[in-house]
Amino acid sequence: xxxxxxxxxxxxxxxxxxxxxxxxxxLVVEAVxxxxxxxxxxxxxxxxxxxxxxxxxxxxxxxxxxxNTNLSQ
Length: 73
Hints:
This protein is mainly alpha-helical. It has one domain (7-68). It contains three helices and no strands. It has helices at 7-20, 24-55, 63-68.
């Protein structure tokens, strides 16, 4: 697989590689791993919410708490 990075990102990656002594490839692999883990976590959280809705087991928040946490309508 080949990636085309904008110059700004390419320069920043080269700088990070130089500062850390790690190859650009290793840094990109780590970044992709982090992205995939974050996406997996997000998907699991969405599924958890969907499952809670299906079971009607959502956490109820009183109006005062909602107002104090910007959850009010």
